[in-house]
UniProtKB/TrEMBL annotation:
Keywords: Leucine-rich repeat, Repeat, Signal. InterPro entries: Leu-rich_rpt, LRR_dom_sf, Plant_RL_S/T_kinase. Gene3D superfamilies: Ribonuclease Inhibitor. It is found in: Cytoplasm, Cytoskeleton, Cilium axoneme; Membrane. This is L domain-like protein.
Amino acid sequence: MFTLVSSAVLSVLFVGAHCVKTIQDCTEFQQCISAPSKCDDIDLGNTHLSGTIPTEMGLLVYLTDLDISYNHLTGVIPTEFGSLTQLQHLQLSYNSLSGRIPMEMGLMAQMSDLEFEGNRLTGSVPTELGLLTRLFEIDGESNMLEGPIPTELGRLRQLTML
């Protein structure tokens, strides 16, 4: 038999585990925006986030790893991601992102691992992704992409998963 105190604690834990918030509400994101040079890794994967990806994410130019996968994010991938030239690992998988893959993502010169499977992305894969010479993995399955795979991707020597 639980005491009133124990029941209250269990209720708080249960409600907290199902709390829905936005990226802008996360302390980790706020700290990165206030001191971008001290932020190279954001891991908000599987944290029940909702809303859209803020365009301010493009201000985090020292970011090398970004994981916002397995959430409830909607909207488009911001074109401002093109400013993230140090980004190496981007995980956007299993959200409800829509729209096209921005061609500006081809500016992310250090990108090695790009994962955006399980969304609602449309259009074709931008040829600009062929500029990402360090890319070894692109996972975009389970979207609504159409058209041929750009020949530029065939020139990526390190690419082992498409």
